[in-house]
Specification:
heterodimer; A: Coagulation Factor XIII, Chain A, domain 1; Immunoglobulin-like; 5 domains; 11-stranded mixed beta sheet; B: alpha/beta; TIM Barrel; 2 domains; 9-stranded mixed beta sheet; 8-stranded parallel beta sheet; 11 helices
Chain lengths: 673, 485
């Protein structure tokens, strides 16, 4: 008996061993034969393969093809395998990477059945870089230039180019399995598939070579920009360069590498041209960050702290003071700060604890209405100069206290007064007595003549609001032709695509008949539209006609630099493209550095629809049903990206809200076009 | 048999039984690896990896180029302050030996460069110099040297005889100080004040006597700086010394006296922040001094701290003076920078302090206190009450040690980059969240250190001299590698 017990125990032990070891037994026997697959391929190929997969015991699950460069898996494709004995055909992408030499890669096939039993097979794959006969350079205006092969992997286009050329490069399909490849700019260099254009630049315009190497991804030319002799660094945004350096009061400012720098706007708080023609540094000596904004042709200068980061206001009043809010912006109101902290303006520290902001009414500050505030930290919320900390001697600008028409600390223009259009004003905050005892003084330094244009739309002259903005309210019919006079480079403007279609017949008005306010911004180069009801912005009627307003984050126009947010007055008026049907169309882009037209943020959305340009009537989950695009967005009234989902940068998406069944039974679709 | 079966069951069990400790075996492979993660899932863990026999098409290929050579490396380490020695001496001799051996042995973490104060620092147990009574004949080492610092240095030297030591005064003897260079009034304070030019020769003799006194104890001083943080008038002991003063002091007194005395100790100027404390007249402090050849001839280079400004200043100074050396001589963790939070500090400190400085021509990096206790002590009033040591020792037992980021980053350098190594070229894969540097040691081995700030692991491939290997660097980690060519 004792012997029997021990034997049973031994058997139990053996079972225990078996169940402990996951590798000992897996049901089924997946087998595969490579029916077809090339032994070699080119980088950039989509390589076809055919595998006969069998498992007579257990149903098959998946066949994976995995490509390894060295030890690193660089590509994978998965095929569902339901039928044993069938041939399964797929394609695996052979990545075209910078600097990868020709050589042997490893292609691994992994066949798995539903019991997770796996069989693997590895094959060598000889890879080589395509020897393209030519490439194509496509500039931002659509012009194409052939880049000739000048050596292995080396290509050049020679033509009369302007000093700045924003372009992408296209490599043609190569071989039987090749793909057309597009090279763009990823913020620091040329990259395959990057959505931004490559910011080629030369110190002079005229005939020169634009080159590209398909192995090293090195391209040229990129003019080096030097500010006071120190080279500026590229940023993630094309045409924007930055450098940190020490600047002393009165330093002569030299800039090399920007062909038209003489035409750039000079921020009078930081840079002033003397009678001798020399531009000199105005604020107190110290460390500063200089950003050259080639898009808007001006330098942003910001004070740095001792830690090398942007400076903050210190308890003794030293450091830096920042401006965030509405109706102020540099170099013009076309680049207004708003309540986006990243746009904060750094006031110039002219001496310890004293900061200036010099603005021109109608150009860099609104003449009739302002609503901005002083903050202690760079580009973020935190310390702010509330009315308890800030007083003013001004009789034209007041400090809000929450009861006098402005939120606590926000600046406003005294009722019944306005700034003189063209008047140059200096706002000085003296914080030398400490950050809790600041005094604002406002003085008018003089006047300047604002630029003016004679702009007409369909013969109607637009009223000039400030140096950049013009507007008129016009009755328009769906399909009306639109003619814009007085803007020489209108083709470079962003004209809201939901309101205007541009085709062979020219520009045509897309939405339904109605009264529309058209605003032309010559600084930001945009044309925008708002549905009107007399002199008031339209609201959504009970019948579903009128204006539907879009608010939220991750949606903005003309780019993510101008997100609508949850700011009343900044909502977007959607185009009623058919009776009671509203739409908003745009490309997806990054949060920062987005291009014009990238009206959706690729990695974050949170938006909602309203009856008016602000709070009040709104669409909740009961009034709006998502009927298309549920794999991308979700929500009940407030729509956000589905968890883990990103939009494809550069792809175009459209929101359509259909209220034809009534405002209480609306539908929304969100789709990639 | 029953016993055997129970053993089988125990091996399978996921119960709470005590696991059988695995034997400690150093992994074997072509490349030895030391890895630490910010979450301490790997804590100076030794691993190994072999060279690959596949074609190297890896997209994350980092190529090491021994033919491109930069500066020679002096070493990496921490400051042996009075407070550090106080804590070390509170440990049992056996525990201290174990800690110091692990820290300083070239076969372990290889700390090889330390900094000590000449007289007091803000982490001494009292305010003093070695000549508090007027008259240089009154020079003598104090109890803090003879009872604290020197015994510890001797223990370390027994473990690592090649240890390099940098000496730095926080203040001159008070009787050599004046209120300013215009009034030249006596200045009876440990903080601020300036060196009376009339005492330049005397103060130079003070340095010589201090170096000779240590030499008599069998301790060679590799380098000195004339003044710790010369633009800092605060602290618990300090003295202001503009670049003009430091230049004149070296040119007229210190340099000539070193030469006349046969002292080969290196002189590094400045020893302060990248941003020159934002004093406009003191920008480019070292470069201004080098401009005078008569002073520059005595100077090896400049030392920097990182409490202000950006390390790009190292590159500026090097580019302006490529024949002069650079060394990073002080940085601290503390309450202000979440100094005990390895998740915040480990990778950032590796990027900024070790990799960041050697990649900008520094021959070494020295962090501040090697050891403080869990109450950040001992410290003096007016000094730093918020600093953490590279390690904390629990003052309830003076045995339990917690390693902070500064210990890890020095260990990760010292373990594979040996004194005399030369930084060599790298090219290929880059990632904004990854920083790395490569070195060739004097024995011909290659060393590679890398900090990965990505949350996720990153497979990288390293290539040198026709060999390559792949290694998956854990997320938020630092890795040191070493292999024979």
């Amino acid at each position: 008996m004792r012997h029997k017990i021990l034997l049973m125990a031994a058997l139990a032990g053996a079972l225990a061993v078996t169940s402990c070891n996951d590798d000992d037994f897996k049901p089924g026997n997946p087998q595969m034969d490579v029916v077809a697959q090339n032994a070699d391929a080119f980088f950039g190929d989509s390589l076809p393969f055919t595998i006969k997969a069998t498992d007579v015991e257990v149903p098959l699950s998946t066949l994976k093809a995995q490509l390894y460069y060295g030890e690193e898996k660089v590509s994978e494709t998965t095929i569902r395998t339901k039928t044993s004995g069938a041939d399964y055909t797929g394609k695996i992408y052979v990545p075209f990477l910078k600097g990868t030499p020709d050589g042997k890669a490893t292609l691994k096939y992994v066949l798995q059945n539903t019991s997770l039993t796996i069989t693997e097979r590895e094959q060598e794959l000889t890879l080589a870089r395509p020897d393209y006969p030519y490439l194509t350079l496509v500039t931002t205006d659509g012009a194409e230039y052939r880049m000739e092969r000048t050596a292995r992997n080396q290509y050049a286009a020679n033509a009369a180019f302007p000093g700045k050329v924003n372009a992408y490069i296209v490599a043609p399909k190569y071989g039987d399995n090749g793909n057309e490849l597009q090279f763009g700019w990823d913020g620091s260099g040329v990259a395959l598939g990057a959505s931004q254009e490559i910011p080629f630049s030369s110190t002079t315009s005229g005939k020169y070579d634009i080159t590209f190497n398909t192995l090293s991804f090195e391209a040229s030319p990129f003019a080096h920009i030097y500010f006071c002799g120190k080279e500026m660094n590229t940023t993630s945004t094309p045409d924007v360069y930055t450098v940190d350096l020490t600047l002393n009061t009165g330093d002569a400012i030299t800039v090399d590498g920007i062909a038209n720098v003489a035409e750039w706007w000079l921020d009078p708080d930081y840079l002033q041209r003397g009678d001798d023609g020399v531009v000199r540094f105005v604020p107190m000596s110290g460390r500063y960050r200089v950003t050259a904004n080639g898009k808007l042709s001006y330098f942003i200068i910001e004070a740095l702290g001792s830690d090398g980061n942007l400076a903050s206001l210190q308890p003794d009043g030293s450091g830096a003071l920042w401006v965030i809010g509405e109706n102020v912006g540099k170099p013009s109101l076309g680049n207004a700060v708003g309540w986006t902290t990243e746009n904060a303006l750094c006031m110039a520290p002219v001496k310890r604890g004293v900061y200036t902001l010099t603005v021109t009414a109608g150009r860099t500050i609104n003449a009739t209405s302002i609503n901005f505030k002083f903050f202690g930290q760079a580009k973020g919320w935190g310390d702010e100069l509330t009315s308890a900390k800030l007083t003013t001697t001004s009789d034209i600008i007041f400090v809000g206290d929450g009861t006098n028409g402005r939120d606590n600390g926000n600046l406003g223009i005294v009722e019944g007064k306005q700034l003189e259009v063209g008047g140059v004003y200096r706002l000085t905050v003296d914080a030398s007595a400490g950050m809790n005892s600041c005094v604002l003084t406002v003085e008018q330094l003089g006047t300047e003549e604002l630029p003016s244009a004679d702009i007409k739309i369909n013969g109607v002259k637009l009223e000039q609001l400030d140096s950049d903005n013009y507007q008129a309210t016009i009755d328009l019919k769906q399909g009306d032709a639109l003619s814009i006079e007085g803007v020489s480079d209108i083709m470079s403007y962003y004209i809201d695509p939901d309101y205007v279609t541009i085709g062979a017949a020219g520009a045509q008005f897309a939405p339904v008949d109605g009264s529309y306010r058209i605003k032309v911004n010559t600084g930001g180069k945009t044309v925008t539209f708002t549905r009107m009801n007399g002199t008031e912005e339209a609201t959504l009627g009970d019948d579903g006609h009128g204006a539907l307003w879009l608010m939220g984050w991750g949606v903005g126009s003309p780019s993510q630099d101008s997100q609508f947010g949850w700011t009343p007055g900044a909502a977007y008026c959607m185009a009623e493209v058919a009776p009671k049907v509203y739409q908003f169309t745009g490309q997806a882009g990054p949060e920062t550095g987005s291009l014009t037209g990238q009206r959706f943020r690729a990695d974050y959305l949170s938006f909602k629809f309203f009856h008016q340009d602000g709070w009040g009537g709104e669409f909740g989950g009961e009034q709006l049903t998502l009927i298309e695009g549920g794999e991308l967005i979700g929500g009940t009234g407030n729509f956000e990206l589905v968890g883990g989902t990103n939009l494809e940068e550069g792809a175009t998406y459209r929101i359509t809200v259909d209220l034809t069944a009534g405002n209480s039974a609306g539908t929304i679709s969100f789709k990639k076009l | 048999m029953l016993t055997g079966l129970l053993t089988v069951f125990a091996a399978c069990s996921n119960s709470n039984d005590e696991p059988t400790p695995a034997p400690v075996i150093d992994p074997v492979g072509d490349v030895s690896v030391l890895v630490t993660t910010a979450y301490r899932t790997k804590d100076l863990t030794r691993e190994a990896v072999n060279f690959s026999n596949k074609d190297n098409l890896a997209p994350t290929n980092i190529v090491i180029d021994p033919a491109t050579r930069y500066q020679e490396i002096d070493g990496f380490g921490a400051a042996i302050t009075g407070s550090t020695c106080y804590n070390l001496l509170k440990m049992s001799a056996a525990d201290r030996k174990e800690f110091l051996t692990k820290t300083f042995s070239p076969d372990a973490y290889g700390f090889s460069y330390v900094r000590v104060s000449i007289g007091c620092s803000d982490f001494s147990l009292s305010e003093y110099t070695c000549c508090d009574t007027p008259g240089i004949d009154n020079f003598a080492l104090t109890d803090e040297e003879t009872d604290l610092v020197i015994p510890i240095l001797k223990e370390i030297l027994a473990i690592n005889p090649a240890l390099k030591i940098m000496g730095t005064p926080w203040t001159a003897p008070k009787w050599m100080k004046v209120n300013n260079l215009t009034d030249l009034q006596p200045y009876d304070s440990w903080t601020s004040g300036q060196l009376n030019p009339a005492y330049y020769a005397t103060y130079a003799a003070y340095f010589v006597k201090w170096i000779q006194a240590f030499k008599e104890q069998g301790i060679d001083i590799y380098a000195i700086t004339p003044q710790n943080e010369p633009l800092n008038r605060g602290n618990s002991a300090s003295m202001y010394m503009s670049w003009e003063e430091e230049r004149d002091f070296i040119r007229t007194a210190l340099g000539p006296l070193f030469a006349a005395s046969g002292i080969r100790t290196k002189i590094y100027v400045f020893d302060h922040n990248y941003n020159y404390d934002n004093i406009a007249s003191q920008q480019s402090y070292p470069t201004n001094i080098y401009a005078e050849a008569e002073a520059a001839q005595y100077i090896a280079g400049a030392a920097f701290h990182d409490y202000g400004g950006d390390r790009s200043e190292l590159l500026n100074v090097h580019n302006a003076n490529p024949d002069k050396e650079l060394v990073f001589s002080e940085t601290s963790i503390g309450t202000w920078n979440s100094g005990r939070d390895l998740t915040k500090r480990l990778v950032e400190d590796m990027r900024n302090i070790t990799i960041g400085t050697v990649n900008n021509w520094c021959r070494g990096a020295i962090v501040w206190n090697l050891m403080l206790d869990n109450d950040r002590s001992p410290y003096r009033e007016g000094g730093c009450s918020t600093c953490y040591g590279a390690v904390d020792i629990n003052n309830s037992d003076y045995k339990t040690i917690t390693r902070n980021s500064h210990y890890y980053i020095i260990a990760h350098m010292g373990a594979v980059v040996k004194p005399g190594a030369v930084r060599i070229g790298t090219s290929g894969y880059t990632d904004a969240n990854i920083a790395y540097a490569a070195f060739e040691n004097t024995d011909g081995t290659l060393a590679f250190v890398l900090a990965n700030n990505n949350e996720k692991a990153k497979l990288i491939t390293v290539t040198a001299d026709g060999k390559h290997f792949a290694y998956e660097v854990p997320g938020k980690s630092v890795v040191s590698m070493k292999w024979a060519k």
